[in-house]
Each structure stands twice: as C-alpha cells, then as structure tokens.
Amino acid sequence: MINLTSDNLQKIEKFILDYSGIVISRIPAKGIQEKIGQHIALLGLNSVEDYIFLLKSPSGGLIRDELMSRITVAESFFFRNPSQFKYISTELFSEFVENRRALDLNEIKIWSAGCAGGEEPFSVAYIVKWFLRAKPDAKFYITASDINSRNLEKARQGLFKPRSFRKQSWEFQKEYKLPLTEENSDGYRIRREIREIVNFKFLNLKDIDSLKTQAGSDIILCRNVLIYFEERFRIELAAMFHKLLNPGGMLFLGETESLSSFNELFELKHCLGAYGYRKIRQ
Ligand SMILES: C[S@@+](CC[C@H](N)C(=O)[O-])C[C@H]1O[C@@H](n2cnc3c(N)ncnc32)[C@H](O)[C@@H]1O
Questions:
Q1: Distance, CA 100 to ligand 1 centroid (Å)?
Q2: Are residues 135 and 260 in the same domain?
Q3: Domain co-membership, 125 together with 15
Q4: How many domains are there within the chain?
Q5: For residue 205, which atom of ligand 1 is closest to its CA?
Q6: In terms of residue numbers, what domain contains 26?
Q7: Which residues in the chain come in under a pLDDT of 70?
Q8: Which terminus in the chain has less CB density within 10 A, N or C?
C-alpha cells in the first residue's frame, strides 16, 4: 500500500476541503488515513498525485463519491432532538398552512440538507403524515440530500437496524400514535406511505450554485453537518440558506451548533425547549 506521508495527506485534505468544505481534523472517526490508503490501493494507483488527478478530473465522479462515502460521518437516529419535530408539527405547519394564500404559495417545502442514511427526512415525513390526518388538504414536498451516494442509496431502501432508534425515537411514536416502521427480517422498514413522500438526491453543499434548486424552501434542516466545515464556508452557507428560504421560513441546526454571527439575517426562536432560526430579512 502507498505510503501516506504527512505531505501527501495534506494534499488529499486540501482536495477534500475544496471539494466538500469538510475539515478532516473535525471528523472524530478513527482510521480515516487507512480508509484513504485502501481506496488508493483499490484503484491500483502508485502515487497520490495520480489519485488527486483522478479526483479532480471531470470524469472522476465515482471516485469522488467513493472517497466521500469513506470519510463522511453518517451518525443519525430517528426524531433526534425531538423538540424540534414537536415544534414543527404542532406549531410551524399550521402557521405555514394559514400563510400559504397570503404568500401566494402552494406546497410547504422542506429540505433535509445532509440527510445521512435517511433517519432525519423520514422523521420529517412521519410528522407530515401525522399532520395530514387533521389537515388532509395541506401540500408538502420533502427533499433529502447528501454528498454520500452510498448512504443515499441505503436511505432510498428505507431499511434500518435497531441502532437508528433511541429511546426518544420510540417515545415519539408512542406519543403521536402513528407507526413509522414495520418489522422486517432484515430490520425495520419505513412504512410505504411515509417512505414514498421523501425525494432523495445528491447535493454537495459546497457546490453553492447547485443549491439554487432548493429556492422557495419553508424549512431547512441542516443538523450536525456544519460542525465539519470551516468557518468561512459556514458563513457562506448560512447566507445561502437565508436566500433559499421563503419569508418567515425556518432553519434548524443540531443541538450543539449555532449561528451566532447571523443575527441580522436570522432570529433565534425557542421551539418547545429546542432552537430554530427564523429568517428575518429579505
Ligand atoms: C452526522 S450526519 C447528520 C445527519 C442528520 N442531519 C442528523 O442530524 O441526524 C452528517 C451528514 O452530512 C453530510 N455531509 C457532509 N458534508 C457534506 C456536503 N459538503 N454536502 C452535503 N452533505 C454533506 C454527510 O455525508 C453526513 O451524511
């Protein structure tokens, strides 16, 4: 296997930063170097220069995908930070449904940006189905995106192992009295009516122009993703989320993340014990 000197590693880290915004040292997982080394060996390459050449080449999509699938952290579980889901389902949806006509809008557009294996967008789809029981005329469109194609493929299948469920995942379903999954010999399968309302797609958040497809969003969840990015990119992304949100739209981040330097664009809102960010200026 090729010797990954610190000089070689720096070159690869620079590529990863430029391509995805990810700062490798922020990834807690061990063995990243080995994973990259194995990838280079699998491709049968003799130098890091050749590896980087392939990663940068226009036809290197599959190689870039494979590298991202190896290094990204896909840790997630259903109804993570349940207060945010409670707030969205019991307060925000009703508000948006009422404002639809005034804003001349139709669907409520929700985007899970950095959706990992699908736990987050299926939790969203679940509360949408719950809400539709009371307001069947409401219209929703859910997009779930990620840079990790392998996880997107897995998410589309809607099959999960017990580790995607925590105590709060079961408590949430008990409270909402709606089953999320059906048991399957391979684990838990998301019920079809919930599964089929999530639209998965590949989106690299670093490719800022490609995010324009998400214009007109009402809710953006980008939770536990910004922590891996450098500050400059976080600032750029938050400004882009602001542009993509409809008036009054909301951005939700992970429990340990904050947008402290954005108080002129977003207002911090208490959401039943959690937080969200409300767009405040055009
Ligand atoms: C820790 S998971 C968070 C999953 C979910 N949002 C949650 O909070 O449970 C982080 C996700 O961000 C994705 N990600 C990292 N960099 C990305 C980028 N540049 N574009 C899109 N997704 C990215 C990773 O592939 C991973 O699936």
A1: 30
A2: yes
A3: no
A4: 2
A5: 20
A6: 6-71
A7: 102-104, 262, 282
A8: C
